[in-house]
Amino acid sequence: MSLIRPFAGLRPVPERAEDxxxxxxxxxxxxxxxxxxxxxxxSFLHISKAEIDLPAATxxxxxxxxxxxxxxxxxxxxxGILQRDDQACYYVYRLTMGDHTQTGLVAVVSVADYDINxxxxxxxxxPAKEDDRVHQIExxxxxxxxxxxxxxxxxxxxxxxxxxxxxxxxxxxxxxxxIGHAFWAVKDxxxxxxxxxxxxxxxxxxxxxxxxxxxxxxRVAAELNAGPDDMSGYFLSVIFPHxxxxxxxxxxxxxxxxxxxxxxxxxxxxxxxxxxxxxSAVSPSRSxxxxxxxxxRWYRLTIxxxxxxxxxxxxxxxxxxxxxxxxxxxxxxDPRTDPRIDFVGGIRGLGELEKRVDSGEMAxxxxxxxxxxxxxMAVADANQVMPPKSTWFEPKLADGLVSHVLx
Length: 407
Hints:
Number of helices: 13
Radius of gyration: 22 Å
Low-confidence stretches: none
CATH architecture of the largest domain: Alpha-Beta Complex
CATH topology of the largest domain: Conserved hypothetical protein from pyrococcus furiosus pfu- 392566-001, ParB domain
CATH class of the largest domain: Alpha Beta
Helix content: 25-40%
Largest sheet: 9 strands, mixed
Number of strands: 21
Strand content: 15-25%
Structural class: alpha+beta
């Protein structure tokens, strides 16, 4: 089996792409999705968040939601909004966010290689979220949400993908959040063969976002007893070179000081960090450096050298903060379950940290240096998992630009 394969994508006709494109299913709650889809009958949210077309009290995981998603998908096909390509293609997908651009390959990726860890993970999954994606795939007979993957950048592959963009794109859209989405179909057999062979030579691919979607695809393939030539043995992905991907900071806010006064907290923090008060918000400039907003003041924290580690997980900034401050000082031993901690994506800015502390909702906030792609890949190569909320990728892939039908 090849690591990747071209596929006949189910996608919008060009004049309808702007009507269809939608945010990923997991970045909006049901009410937000209902508002975003208002007046947009062909928004892909009617498939990815189909509870918006059912009574407001409907459980998003109820069987009726998956049934409605299938009905809505079929309606979009019958009305000519979505059409399936008549040949197997790769696709090139460019995301633009401000000055940042990244250009990757849309392909279906081998479940068998996922199962042997050639497609490498860095997170645990939760059974309930896996079940949700399994039910969605089964109801639609399609994968509609792509997994975000990375490969270690290779000049030849990067240039081959980039060369496709010299042609006019089939879609060139700007979503309502300002993110640009450009999309090309790759139908040239020679280019398809070169891409397939180039990826087959790679040691591994890395899941950046989409652990539940890829795990669900593996479960569905096993249930269907997918053979080496069955398209159900592959899952929908967008694969970017690692050095084009952008990880933003994923910051922390904590509800209380664990019965410590401000001065007592500072004294305890000083055991592991150098503390310097700052006159403005602290955006850490390197790994091992943190900002702390406490009682209306910003502090720059620098981890003591003797607290650093060579272990791929322990050396992460999220681990350094957790192991040297959040757990021993603030008593947060399990950030997955402790209701005293919350996480704020860097896209919201440091002002969001100040707001949540100044309002009294939270007592202290920590700004983080972003995790690097090199660190993510090192953790995955070591077959380990990262702490929760270690990465915040931007820009996000859109739903609806292309889906993978399993037959």
